[in-house]
Amino acid sequence: MAPGIGETGEPFKRLFFALDCGPEQRRAIARWRGELDMGAARPVPSANFHLTLMFVGAAGTAQLPAILAAAAGVKVPGELLTLVLDRLEVWRPAKALVLVPSQTPAALRQLAYALQQAMLPLGIVQDPRDYRPHLTLARDYRGSEPEALEPAAFVLRARHFTLFESRKGQYWPLAQWPL
Q1: CATH number of 63's domain
Q2: Which structural domain range is residue 102 located in?
Q3: Which molecular function GO terms apply here (predicted)?
Q4: Which of 64, 106, 135, 168 has its CA 20 to 30 A from that of 1?
Q5: Rg of the chain over all Cα atoms, to the nearest angstrom
């Protein structure tokens, strides 16, 4: 379970901040996804379902304490964060099939922005594109949007946000902070 080794020889971890899904919600989304015709796409394991707030990328293990401290200082909504994943989209450049909200709560955008700002002094810069909340259902998806037997309507209620490490196709929670 060791981290990777970067070009400089320093150990690193691939990190991201996200809102996690509970076990019952994971099962419901996986059942719904199972009814979609996804062709040869690679389904994301339901254990990996999450809503990314910020992708950190490869961070040196020596930088981890500073990342944790910066995240702990992020101003949070102070209440349960709720959003509805109710639209299915195909993101062609990424070759991904994703669930997205029709409406993104302001508190969610503010949390993602606050994380980006907290990471800037550490030299961690987010892609300048607008924040697009999503839950990835499948990778290597090349078809058009599949027909769903029932419309998506998954309510995500987050009580905390989490820093995850991506390791060999699995996501490991490293720390979490209450909302």
Answers
A1: 3.90.1140.10
A2: 11-178
A3: 2',3'-cyclic-nucleotide 3'-phosphodiesterase activity; RNA 2',3'-cyclic 3'-phosphodiesterase activity
A4: 135
A5: 17
In this structure, what token pair is assigned to residue 123? 């030299």
Helix, strand and coil percent figures for the chain, each rounded to 5: 25, 40, 35
Catalytic (active site) residue 134: yes
Question: Out of 74, 134, 158, 162, which one is annotated catalytic?
Answer: 134
pLDDT tens-digit readout, 6-43? 555 567 799 999 999 999 999 999 999 999 999 999 99
The pLDDT score that the predictor gives to residue 1 is 38
Q: Is residue 1 part of a domain?
A: no
Contact between residue 3 and residue 12 where contact means Cβ atoms under 8 Å apart: yes
Burial 47-58 (b: 16+ CB within 10 A, else e): ebbbbbbbebee
Taking only the tens place, the pLDDT of each residue in 71-100 is 999 999 888 899 999 999 999 999 999 999
Q: Which DSSP category does 8 fall into?
A: T
Whether 50 is a known active-site residue: answer yes
Q: How many domains, the chain?
A: 1
Which of 17, 50, 59, 112 is labelled catalytic?
50
